[in-house]
Amino acid sequence: MPFSRKNALLSVPGCETIECLLRAPNNKSRATRVVKPFDEHMKAQQRRKGLVKLGKRCTQIPGDPFGLWTPWASNVVHPRDERMPRSQTPAIVAGIDSNQQIGDMIQIAHAYDEEFTVVKDNDEELVVKFALGSKSVRLMQCRDLDVTDEEAYIQSSRARASEHSTSTQLPDPPMAPELTQLIMAKLLSARGGQPDINDLSSSNPSSSGSSGSKKSKAGPFYNLRMATLEEYWLHMSPKQREDTRRDPVRANLPVPKWHTDVFHQYALDQIAAQNVWGYVEEDVFVVVDKNHRVVFANVENLSSLLFGYSTTDLLARFLDIWFYFTPLHSPESVRHTVSVYIRKIHPELDPSKATVAHLPDAKICVAHYGTWAVTGGQNGRHICLNSDSAFTRGSSSTFSRLLFGDFCRAALDKVTGMTRLLLKPLDPEHYKDPEDFLSLFALRVNGYTQRHRDKNEVSGGLAGFCTFGDYTGGHLCITQLNLKVPHEPGACSLIRGTVLRHPVENFTGPRFFLIGTNHENVKRNAWRKLGKLPALPPTNQDNDTNWKSRKHDVKMDTTCVNERDGHFDNIQYTNRKLHDAGSLEASSPSSEADTS
């Protein structure tokens, strides 16, 4: 997506086909006027590749007059194309809003089948299956799991079984630092059949696009280390890895700085997804702890059940058009460190190997819309709109800024409705606890997510995970529960992301997923304003020259809490308490005298 004219469905209008989008000339400036539209190029020119390069700005893309490739983004965008407002606001947004009300799930429950099957019943878990109308339901109670105890997620029987079975799938030990250096030396000295180390920095957009990240500071050495890990775990056979570990040269190598062996975890998770984690195929799946509190829930095809198939398809098209005009970040971070390798096994996602007609589809992107704490504000003292929501990266997001309200009303509202439908009855306490149960949305496009935990989310809270697109695979795996769910397009899951590690299995095809969540520091900021938490002490001291009075000034600026006991019956007021700290010098004998 966008589709070509011959591959588009009848429901897709002609203005959304790639031929129509690349047909209009760009006469805005002299530089863009020389770029010919797609139809004016010869067939050989239309099949040309290598038009853009990750991390390098490109303002003239042959065959795409409005195309722009920014160094920090990972998708080709068309910010100055005036067709963007016309393509989104009237038709697509109105179509998505036409079925605004969520369907009544109670009507489905009337067909409830009272017969159920007990799959397992022991001291550790209880699993039952039954039918809810035409949908199959599986409920699982983990009797050795408690959502309030983080250690239970590691010590439960399912977690231990998953860890034991996973470790046996790849018996090779993690790479020692000296072994890493040995393979680095072999890669640098090898000729033919080995990756070109000089080109590694250009294959990683973070090495040149994000100047403030740790990866950009590491430069080619980081990319060399990633190439080493990839070579060892994904391209060597078990016999080759064993011979490399026995190489006597490695004993003479110095020990470098410690680093995470991300490709070992990637290879291990992919094998475990195929051989270890059980596949739950039921349409509705809910996991609760010993106190019947929800740990994980998944409903397949929920979007179509609530809004209909046409609205679900329309929402996927709406998201794809949004990606066509709006630049999104490249997800080269801790949980996406193998994105360079993903582009190798999925060349259709590598923009440097795409033609001009397939360039809009070659993207691995991420964006965050909502609020979070300012950098370094772990306590949530100051909450602000993040940069993706404010569109602060220059003029390339002008139309996106104007249409952001329609985007929220059409896309984010549907995700909120799906998440609310599951969260409100399954965990009403968490739903009512924050002022707003969702304050941040993570939008990801074709991203493979490695095993991770979302540590910034509300402690012990639930996040909504919705997927759209036209893909196969992409099963959502929950490592501590020793299982995986289909997570096909239109599915919605609730997951306690702060404690449950959740990688995603490999997939093929366009995959868009939105995560609705709330950060812990944002919740604490709201609670302080509501009086549920005491206010934070001030960060800056006043200009009082007497250091003895600074302790009193801090107390004076902190919110008071009246406990309503007899100790406060005889309150003595002073000039300092009535008129603030600057009324009298702290050294004055009358500064603490009683006033009449």
TrEMBL record:
It comes from the Eukaryota. Residues 156-170, 585-596 have a biased composition (Polar residues). Residues 156-176, 194-219, 575-596 are annotated as: Disordered. This is Uncharacterized protein. Residues 201-213 have a biased composition (Low complexity). It comes from Immersiella caudata.
